[in-house]
Amino acid sequence: MSKQTKTYLLLGVVLVIWGVIGFKVVNTLSPKEEPPIVQKQAVDIPRATTKKDTFTLYANYRDPFLGTLQNPNKKVKKKVPKKTDLPKKNITYDGLVSQAGSGKSMFFVTIDGQQHMMFPNQEVDGVRLLSGNVSKIRVRYNGQHETITLSE
């Protein structure tokens, strides 16, 4: 190799090295803008609840200080829950259709704004049609009996 070739080759290597160093300096002095960090909201994960293990101690042994047995046959008064007043349903009797020979009747009853065709002993929306005639019907709902007359 001639002296000139070596010089050009070394000059190229030096330019490449200084180019890499210059590139790193320029990137360090003017960094790219990073996108803002967005925090995600934490999601509440419902935890499975476990039922507590309960126990009861029955002290049915002789009292060491008094020398007597406790009476295990104590009468416990049970609390009877009071009936809550359930909302009254809006029920109207609109009429009936019956076949002349069969004796079966189909009654038109409106329950809370929706009209239903009901046969005796049929239950719709918790309302049971007990019986009926041309002028009135008997229904049962929420454990209560009610007589409803034909609406005009």
List the helices and strands and how they pair.
Blueprint: H1 3-29, E1 91-98, E2 105-111, E3 114-118, E4 123-124, E5 127-132, E6 136-141, E7 144-149
Antiparallel strand pairs: 1-2, 2-3, 4-5, 5-6, 6-7
Could you walk me through the main structural features you see in this protein, from its secondary elements to its overall organization?
The chain is 18% helix and 26% strand. It contains 1 helix and 7 strands; from the N terminus they run αβββββββ. The strands form 2 sheets. Strands 4-5-6-7 form a 4-stranded antiparallel beta sheet, with no helix packed on it. The protein has a 3-stranded antiparallel beta sheet with strand order 1-2-3, with no helix packed on it. The termini are far apart. The protein has one helix at residues 3-29, and strands spanning 91-98, 105-111, 114-118, 123-124, 127-132, 136-141, 144-149. The protein is of the alpha+beta class. The protein is elongated and about 130 Å long.
Instruction: Give the structural class.
Output: alpha+beta
**String of helices and strands:** HEEEEEEE
What is the general shape? Answer: elongated
Strand order of the largest sheet: 4-5-6-7
The largest sheet, given as strand count, sense and whether it forms a barrel, is: 4 strands, antiparallel
Rg result:
45 Å
The overall average pLDDT, rounded, is: 83
Give a count of the beta strands, DSSP E runs of length 2 or more: 7
The percentage of residues in β strands lies in 25-35%
How widely separated are the two ends? Answer: 122 Å
Compute the number of helices: 1
The residue ranges in which pLDDT falls below 50 over 5 or more consecutive positions are: none
Q: Helicity range of the residues?
A: 10-25%
